[in-house]
User: What shape does this take?
Amino acid sequence: MAGTDAGRPTVVVGVEDARGCRPAVWWACQQAERRGARVHLLHAAPPPVPVRALGQARYAGEQAERRAATARAVVEEVLERARRDHPGVEVDGSVVHDDPRAALLEASRTAALVVTGARHAGRRRPDLGLHLGSTSLSVSARACCPVAVVREAEAEGVRGVVVGHDGSQGADDALAVAADHAQALGEPLLVVRAWRTALVPLDAWSGQVWVEAQDAEREGHRQELAELAERLRAERPGLELRTDLVEGEASDALLAAADGSRLLVVGTRGRGAFLTVLLGSTSHDVLQRAPGPVVVVPDVRRNRGR
Assistant: This one.
C-alpha cells in the first residue's frame, strides 16, 4: 500500500451516518489489520451558505453549529464501535466542512485506500440493480489511490478475489492491486478476460475463413492470458492463480465470475469529461450491479496530474 501517514499506510473511510457506514468501516478495519495500516474515519459536510441579513446570519450560525455537533457525534459513535470491534487497529476520525467528494479526493492523495459505502439513489430498477450514489462513483473515477465500494457486510462462505484484465495498462494496475489483496487475504486470484471479436467480416470471406479468423483471435487472447499468468506466478510465488477467457460483455462476465467471491477488482479507462467515460463503462456497470465489495483502481498518474 503506497499511501502512508507518519510512516504507516492509511485507509480512509467516508462516514455519512452511523448506521449506513457499518459495512464499509468493518471491511476497512479488516483490511487495515491484515496490512498493518491505520484507519481514518472522515465525515465531510458542506460549509454553511453565507448570508447577509442579521437574522438570517444568526439562524445560519445556529444551524451550522447543530450540524457540526451532529457530525462529531456520528464520528464518535462510529469510532467507539470500530475501536471496540477491532482493538488491534489504530482508528481515529475527523470532521471537515467540505463537499464529501472533494474531501475524499483530497484524502486520496495521501491514503493507501479510500473506502466508501454505497448510498443508493432513486428506485431499484431490474436492469441496473441498486443505484450507486454520486459520491462513490465520482471518487472511484478521480481518486489518487484505489477506492473500495462496500455495499453490505461480507457474506458467509465467500472466497477468492476476481479481477478483470483487458490487456491495458489500467488492467495491469488493477491486477497488481488484486494480487496484493489476494495474498493479504490468503485467497486464490481469478483473472478474467472478456472479449468480443474486433474483426469486421469482408465480403470475400467464406464462412470457414470467418470462423478461422475468430479462432485465431480467441487463441491470441488465450496466449496473452497464459503469458500473464506465467509472469505473475514468477513474481508472486505461492499465489494461487487461475485465468478465464469469456466471450461476451465484460461487466456480465465479471459479475458472474465474482458471484461468491470476497472481492472484485476493476480498473478504469477513458479520458472524457463525463463520469461514465472517465470511469469506464464496464467499471461503472460493475459498481452499479455488484452486491459485494468492489475495488476500483483509477488512473493514478492522470488523476495526480490534475
Observations:
- Residues 120-131, 270-278 have pLDDT under 50 and may be disordered.
- The longest strand covers residues 38-45.
- The chain has two domains: 1-117, 157-306.
- The two ends are 22 Å apart (CA to CA).
